[in-house]
Amino acid sequence: MKPRPIGLVGAGSLSRSFLARLPALHERLGPVLAPSQRLASRLVNVLRAGRAVERYEELEDSSVVLVAVPDSLLPQVVAGLAAGVSDWTGRTVLLCDTREDCLVLQDLAKRGAATASLTPLAGPKPRYIVEGDRRAVREARSLVHGSGAQVWEMPCGNKPFFFAALTFSSGVLPVADAAARCLRAAGLPAPACTSLNQELLDRTLRAYLHGGRKAWGGVVADGDAAQAARELAALEGADPSLARAYRQLARFALEWFERDGTWFERIAAPGSPHPLRGARKPRPSGQACATPYDSSQ
Average pLDDT of 186-200? Predict the structure, then answer.
């Protein structure tokens, strides 16, 4: 028995959407609805499948309806679907290419639709997260099955936690950039700064993956007040914005790992005595700097 067609409500450019790469969609796509007939026809050409329609009522024969529109249009589309299709019992609505979760489809769920969201993840291999009720999740898995994709499932409404994880992960970038600026301030040549920064980041990540929270180490983790004070003083002399970032990161880490930060506040507060208070700015790269190992001393 031939499966019922898949309907699509789309807007914007879908040429870069994962939908354009799904074999199952090419085989089953039927009515394609957009804010205008012209855009609907364009989407049909981009996807090389389906037929352009003008009214929500023309989605009646679709067992699965995909919604791939900008978030600003979602309330309008959900209202149109609710009013245009008389019976949603046994149908599935999949929200695609959005950070919104299936809760925005609750008006359709109340009418009997199974709802879920399907979101692609960046990377060399096709991977997706899907959240929603079980019947809709099965439809989502079936839709991407032919692409050899890996699919991770989560309960409906939990999608913000996933994107919060991505936000925290992206927070590594300003930390990496601050570390790079410190290495440059130390006078190291650019190639050394790049390779050393990469090595430090890789080592930190590997340590966390191996040991979790126990892997946290370094000056602040050790409670080395004297060394932390020296580092703060050097940063204040070279770039106060780096010193501010150092304080913020240290306070966050101490609180997150539930360590006593009293010692840090004593050295971090404005006006606190530092071993190197008034120290000169770092010498430019290549300029001689006496060290305990300098034979000229």
Answer: 94
